[in-house]
Amino acid sequence: MTQKKLALVTGANGHLGNNVARLLLSKGIPVRASVRNIQNKESFVGLNCEVVQADITDKQSLVNALQGVEVFYAVGAAFKLWAKNPKKEIYDVNLEGTKLQIEAAAEAGVKRIVYVSSIAALDYSKLPTKESYGYNPDRRDTYYNSKNDAEKLAFELAEKHNIELVAVLPSAMIGSEAFMPLNVSYNIINLILQKEIPVETNITLNWIDVKDVAKGCYLAATKGRNGERYILANEKCTSIKDTTKIAKELFPELKIKLPTAVPKPILYTVAWFMEIGSKISGKAPLLTTKDIAMFSGLQQDFDTSKARTELGFNPKSSAQAVKEAMIYLRENEKRMR
User: What superfamily would CATH give domain 7-175+206-236+300-318?
Assistant: First the structure.
């Protein structure tokens, strides 16, 4: 029996990274999990994997972590839609992190990279969108810009260094295993359960179970074609209102109310005040004026036939993913505080 090759997962204490590590271990693949802060080991309790320190903006730490690695799951990135200094904290981190991860992989002799991009790097001008439509022409959001530009850079550098690279583009990931702080998408589910989304924003999300995305990453490593990108999502998006309806049905005792429709000018005013508050507190606002301008009414619907046909990607439905995520959060409510 041939020994299975070592895999490195960066950002392995993040929501997706940790689930990728768990999936690989379940398949008997030896895993080296890299984290920025080596003290942060809560998400590895009971897992038989090597945990090392590496920062995606520190090339030498990446070269060290990649020694002896055959397949590299480049999951680590700045996943946030708001920051006090968005260029420095989001854009620069994601571009520099991508550059250094691929250069380090080349130095360490890595053969194949699964690069985690995002549905942010897709063109929504024609729906349902697909990989072949190219990149997002809307340049209003720093995080979206970082994912578009970083994915293009990843392909360029992989070709230059003669490394196989497959990009996966996940949508809004929810579901277990999860640790605090919750990622942006999962936090929306939590806010619904906490009754903290009172108004209808007309924003939709394409919910996907994180375990399905983890499996999609593994399928990309084993079946994905070099130089190709694969959407890991469901076909149809779900509004915040319809997501709230699921919570109402699941937990009638919480007496959750559906968000109230308000005129757009009022939405902009509410968001403006939230942004002012964030400048004072330093915490991300629940809603920004840019969120309304970019995402209100945007349908995040996808043609996922490429991932289904070429990878065998077959995720559970968005509704099922939402139900399971809500039940998980309710069962782990005390730990999630």
Answer: NAD(P)-binding Rossmann-like Domain (3.40.50.720)
**What is the number of other CB atoms lying within 10 angstroms of the CB of residue 202?**
17
Note the pLDDT tens digit of each residue in 186-241: 989 999 999 998 888 989 999 999 999 999 999 999 999 999 999 999 999 999 99
| Rounded-to-5 percentages of helix, strand, coil across the chain | 45, 15, 40
- pLDDT tens-digit readout, 138-157: 999 999 999 999 999 999 99
Cα separation, 118 vs 232, whole angstroms: 9
Cα(18)–Cα(1) distance, integer angstroms = 27
CA separation for the pair 204, 128 (Å, rounded): 14
d(CA 178, CA 128): 30
Tokens of 20: 């990728």
Rg of the chain in Å (alpha carbons): 20
Return the domain boundaries, the chain.
7-175+206-236+300-318
CA 197-199-201 angle, to 5 degrees, is 100
Q: In this structure, how many other beta carbons lie within 10 angstroms of the beta carbon of residue 109? A: 12
DSSP string, 49-64: -EEEE--TT-HHHHHH
Q: Does residue 130 contact residue 303 with C-beta atoms inside 8 Å?
A: yes
Which residues, other chains included, contact 115 with Cβ-Cβ below 8 Å and sequence gap of 6+?
74, 98, 151, 154, 158, 165, 166, 167, 168
CA atoms within 13 A on the CB side of 193: 20
Q: Contact at 8 Å (CB) between 331 and 158?
A: no
Which residues lie below 8 Å from residue 263, measured CB to CB, with a gap of 6+?
none
Task: Check if the beta carbon of residue 215 is closer than 8 Å to that of residue 173.
Answer: no
